[in-house]
Amino acid sequence: MRISSHYLPAIAVTTWVILVLLLLVLTSTLHLEIYFILVLVGVLIIVEMTESPYSRPQYLNYTRLVVAGIVILFGLILAQKMLGMLHL
Q1: In which domain, by residue range, is 50 found?
Q2: Which residue, 70, 71, 67, is CA-closest to 51?
Q3: Given Cys at both, which of 22, 54, 55, 59 links 6, Cβ 3.0 to 4.6 Å?
Q4: In this prediction, what percent of the chain has a pLDDT beyond 90?
Q5: Are 63 and 69 in contact (CB under 8 A)?
Q6: Domains in the chain: how many in total?
Q7: Rounded to the nearest 5 degrees, what angle is found at the Cα of 43, between the Cα atoms of 58 and 67?
Q8: What are phi and psi of 30, to 5 degrees?
């Protein structure tokens, strides 16, 4: 059975998310901040590798929405940490 090429980014992102989670559990450093940073870096790399300079398939628009959501979550975590440092 052959996997369609438009499923490969979703498979890669899912694999990366699970791999990061397993790595953090095995090293006993399960922190939400570290998890989101590693997931963000992996997703951005996967999106850049699957994007074509000549055309943009429809599924990449949905991938960009996922990336935007992860960036927003990362920004919220960063803002929370900064407010915690300022004791506000």
Answers
A1: 5-85
A2: 67
A3: 59
A4: 14
A5: no
A6: 1
A7: 60
A8: -80, 95
